[in-house]
Specification:
heterodimer, A: about 130 residues, alpha+beta, Ubiquitin-like (UB roll), B: about 400 residues, alpha/beta, FAD/NAD(P)-binding domain, Enolase-like, domain 1, 3 domains, 10 helices, 27 strands
Chain lengths: ~130, ~400
């Protein structure tokens, strides 16, 4: 599904994904890596859903209402993934798995060309 | 031995969760999931929030096609069921295909209630339930100046926020004395109503629609009290009725829903019901009811999957809800209907409101606006069967978040 999409202009050679789509690696809690191409502008949560990645529940569909798309962002990318909004901050406090300094809701991170190569680790539990 | 087959009729939040949880629980039989829509199953809440506007957001699938393939979930779109033969454990589709099942999960949902108002068939009069409805509504909104919304419930108000945000002249007409009468406390409703009015929406309460006027297209809505509201787009959003005709044919359903027990089983062996259509004994409400929400749909899907794979099979999950209108995020933990005491607090940033609802001295639910921390804390507290006192609720120094963290630490 993620690979059949439209006229995304090809970008810098650094982009590793198909047709220049940014690539995101989702690490399972046990460390198994799934690297997939995510449509630019989609969220980290949507990238996981589109690619059938286990471990992202996304009950509320991306409105920061359920905290079931919790991810731990690789430290190297933390400065690049944007700020935590007040709502996200409060939801993360009560996520099913423990909040860490690098915790984010996947629905609140838009995957851009600048995030090509992003690595996130999924928590043990989302519900 | 031939593999068992679980047949799921309906492929929205409840049906999809049932299928996904069956596989998560190691179910190895055949899973067939039937939808009467053409699309891959999708998130419904955004339909009234971000989709029903000109050039609205894209559809959000619940799960990808690959997800269903990987898990051997046979998704059958565009298909309706004609007959149900429970003794043979067999259904026949409208196209004449025969499907034999071992377990049948009815996840048929609900549809908008359309009262017999004269003029309801005019062009420009719509309801909102499906993706196709949302796309039609968004397109109609593009060419509309005056929008009349019949019903001051969540769907009506969310669409009012969308239409007002697009600069349209919006009127909401609610028959009850106030908006959201069945859904939230007066104080929460008042804050939402005030925000709608601040954004230019006219809210009419205690008045009902007598007729929708127009030649072929709607031109106005006329009320009992004699108001004549110009309208080139009308949304009827006065509630929903369960899709329970199939169940009704075999004596387990009516307009109120499909009756199930706490394990979500109907009175007919092998047949279960989940989601919007399921009239279930709700432990938190202390009554049998239908609940239209994502939480109810997904948690009932999980429960029925557990029942079918031999695990825990009592539906006891705490209800929770949310609604986004303008910059206001309303979140509800528990069932606040029927409360006899409401203790409200306004603290923190502007617009932040919390209403603690009690029934017979016990906390039954918490409504909050722009206060996600309190919402999540309340979910944890109520989910653990805990309560707080009205005095604690009123005390500005009482921190429900800290109280909830203590529960987590003790568990």
């Amino acid at each position: 599904m993620a690979n059949c999409l439209r006229d995304v202009p090809s970008r810098s050679p650094a982009a590793t994904g198909v047709d220049g789509m940014p690539r995101v690696t989702y690490l399972s809690p046990s460390g198994v890596a799934h690297s997939v191409d995510v449509r630019a502008g989609d969220s980290v949560m949507q990238g996981a859903i589109a690619n059938g990645i286990d471990g992202i529940v996304a009950e509320c569909g991306g409105s920061a209402s359920c905290a079931t798309c919790h991810v731990y962002v690789d430290e190297a990318f933390l400065p690049l993934v944007g700020e935590v909004s007040p709502v996200e901050d409060e939801m993360l406090d009560f996520a099913a798995s423990e909040r860490q300094p690098n915790s984010r809701l996947g629905c609140q991170i838009a995957v851009t060309a600048g995030l090509d190569g992003l690595v996130v680790t999924l928590p043990e539990r989302q519900v | 031995m031939a593999a068992a087959t679980t047949l799921i009729i309906g492929a929205s939040h409840a049906g999809v969760q049932t299928a996904a949880s069956l596989r998560d629980n190691g179910y190895d039989g055949r899973i067939v999931m039937i939808s009467d829509e053409a699309h891959l199953p999708y998130h419904r809440p955004p339909l009234s929030k971000t989709l029903a506007k000109p050039g609205g957001a894209a559809l959000q699938v619940l799960r990808s096609a690959r997800f269903f393939e990987d898990r051997r979930i046979e998704f059958v779109p565009d298909t309706r069921i004609a007959t149900l033969a429970p003794n043979e454990r067999r259904v026949v589709t409208a196209d004449g295909a025969v499907i034999d099942y071992d377990a049948l999960v009815l996840a048929t949902g609900a549809r908008p209630l359309v009262p017999p108002i004269p003029g309801r068939d005019l062009d420009g009069v719509m309801t909102l339930r499906s993706l196709d409805d949302a796309l039609r509504l968004g397109e109609a909104l593009q060419g509309a100046d005056h929008v009349a919304i019949i019903g001051g419930g969540m769907i009506g108000l969310e669409f009012a926020a969308v239409a007002a945000g697009e600069g349209r002249q919006v009127t909401v007409i609610e028959a009850a004395p106030r908006i959201l009468g069945r859904a939230v406390s007066a104080e929460t409703a008042d804050q939402l109503a005030a925000e709608h009015r601040r954004r230019g929406v006219t809210i009419v309460t205690g008045d009902s629609v007598l007729a929708i006027e127009g030649q072929t297209r709607v031109s106005a809505v006329v009320t009992k009290a004699g108001l004549r509201v110009p309208a080139d787009l009308v949304l009827i959003a006065v509630g929903a009725i369960a899709n329970a005709e199939l169940a009704g044919d075999i004596g387990i359903g009516n307009r109120e829903g499909i009756q199930v027990d706490t394990g979500l089983a109907t009175a007919v062996p092998g047949i279960y019901a989940v989601g919007d259509c399921a009239h279930h004994p709700n432990t938190h409400a202390g009554a049998s009811m239908r609940i239209e929400s994502v939480q109810n749909a997904t948690d009932q899907g999980r429960t029925v999957a557990a029942a079918l794979t031999g695990g825990k099979a009592r539906y006891t999950a705490l209800p929770w809800f949310w609604s986004d209108q303008y910059e206001l995020k309303l979140q509800i933990a528990g069932i606040t209907q029927g409360h006899d005491l409401a203790v409200s607090r306004r603290d923190g940033p502007d617009g932040r409101l919390t209403v603690f609802c009690f029934r017979r001295g016990r906390l039954v639910g918490v409504e909050s606006i722009n206060n996600a921390r309190t919402h999540m804390a309340a979910r944890r507290l109520l989910g653990a069967g805990m309560t707080i006192t009205a005095a604690q609720a009123a005390d500005p120094d009482f921190d429900i978040g800290a109280a909830a963290k203590l529960i987590a630490a003790a568990e």
